[in-house]
Amino acid sequence: MPKHELLLEQQQLVQHFVEAAQEQEARKSAIMQQRTTARQEAANKWKQDLMKTDDDVDFIRRSYAEIRTRLMQQGWHGLAVKFRRNLFAFVPTETPSQQIHEYHQEAEVVREALASFLRRYTDPNELLKTSIKVGAAYAAFVGLVWIILMLSFRLGNIYAFLGLLVVVLLTFAAGAAWFGFSRITYMGRAFYHLKQLDLRTEEAQQSRRQLIEESYQRKLGRIEHDFQREMSQLTQEFQLQSPLRQADVDAFINKLELAGLDWNKMHWQEPWEKQHQHQVVPPVTRIGRLTVHASPPLPLIPAIISCPNGSNLLLEASGAAKSAAIAAVMSIILRLLLTQEPGHVQFTFIDTARLGGNFEPFLWLSAYNDVLTGGAIVTKPGQIEQQLTELTDHIARITQQHGGDLKEIAEPYRVLVVM
User: Fold this and answer.
1) pTM flag (> 0.85)
2) Which end of the chain is more exposed for a tag (fewer CB within 10 A), N or C?
3) How far apart are CA 411 and CA 285, in angstroms?
4) Are 283 and 308 contacting, i.e. CB atoms less than 8 angstroms apart?
5) Pick from 14, 7, 12: which is nearest to 293 by CA?
6) Averages of pLDDT over each 10 residues, the chain, 419 residues
7) 188 CB-near residues (< 8 Å, 6+ apart)
8) Around Cβ 256, how many Cβ atoms within 10 Å?
C-alpha cells in the first residue's frame, strides 16, 4: 500500500529538520575545531617563547659557570676578583626580549675573549714569563737606543754606563708590569662583565616570562571572544529560521486537522458535531511528537501513523518506557474514538498481562458491542483464539465478497489492540 501524502510530508519535514540540525552541528564542530587549533598554536608559541628565553639565559649561566670554574682551576680566580671593579657599561634596549638577546650576544663575545685569554695563559706563571719577555724586549730596545746615543755623543764615562743600567732596569720593570697588569685587568673586567650579564639576564628573564604569560593570556582571551562571537552569530542565524520552520509545522498540523490536533487545544471541549463540522479527517493518527535534537531547539513535529487504514504498529518497551508506550496506545484509541464517525471503528482488546487492567480507561466501552467486540476485554487463551479466528474470518469474507476492492465498502474499521 502506498504511503499517504501526509506521511510523506512528515518524512520530508523530519528530513529537513535533521539536515538543518546536522548542518548546525557541523558548523559548531568547525568553530570548536578552529578554537582548539588556535589555542594549540597559541600554546605552542607560548612554550617556544619560554624555551627560547630559557635557552638564552641558560647559555649565559653556563658560560659564567664554565669561565669561573676554569679561572679557579688555572689559578686566576683570585686575581680576577681583585681586578673586577669597574662599572657595567653595557646598555641594552628597554624591551626584555631584546635585552636577553643582546645579553646573549654580549656574553658570547666576552666568553670567547676570556676563553682565549685562558688558552694563551694557562696559569699566572705563564703570564709572568710572557711579561718578563715583554719587559726584556722593551729594555733591550731602550738599551740599544741609549748605546747609540752614547756612541753618537762619545759618552764613555762611568756615569753614562750607570745611566744605561738604570734606564734598562726601569724600562724592563715598567714594561713587564704594564703588560702583566693590563692583561690581568682585562681579564678581571671581562669576568666581572660576564657575571653582571648573568645577574641582569636573570632579572630580564623574569620580566620576559611575565610578558610572555600576559601575551598568552590575552591571546587566549581573543580566541575565546572570537569563539563566543561566532557561536552567537551561528545561534542567531539558526533562530532566524525558527519562525519559518514553525510555520511549516503549523501548516502540517492544519492538514492533519483532528488527527493531529494537540490534546490541550480547546477544540476538544466543544460538542462532537461542532468538532467535526467542515472537518475531513485523513486516515492517519497522531501517536506523539518527533523531536530532532538541536540547539537552539527545533519545533516539535507531530508523529503520525497510517491508522486506521494502514500498517500495523508494534511498540516494544520495558521499565519506565513501558508506561509511555501504554499511554501512546491509549492516545491512539481515544483519538480514533473522537475522530471517526460513530460505528466506523470497532476494537478488539486483548490483555493477558494485567487481565484487562491496561485498558481500564476504556472499560466503559463494554456497554457498546458495536464499538468493543464481544462487549468485553479478552484475557483467556481460549477467548483470544476465538476472537482472532472470528476477526480473520470476517476480513477474509469481506475481501472475497468485494474481490479485494475495499475502497467503497461501508464497513467499520477493525482495530486489534494486544497488550
Assistant:
1) no
2) N
3) 19
4) yes
5) 14
6) 79 90 91 94 90 83 87 85 63 69 84 89 89 88 81 71 83 88 86 83 82 90 93 90 89 81 68 56 80 86 79 81 84 81 80 79 74 75 83 80 62 81
7) 79, 80, 81, 82, 83, 84
8) 19
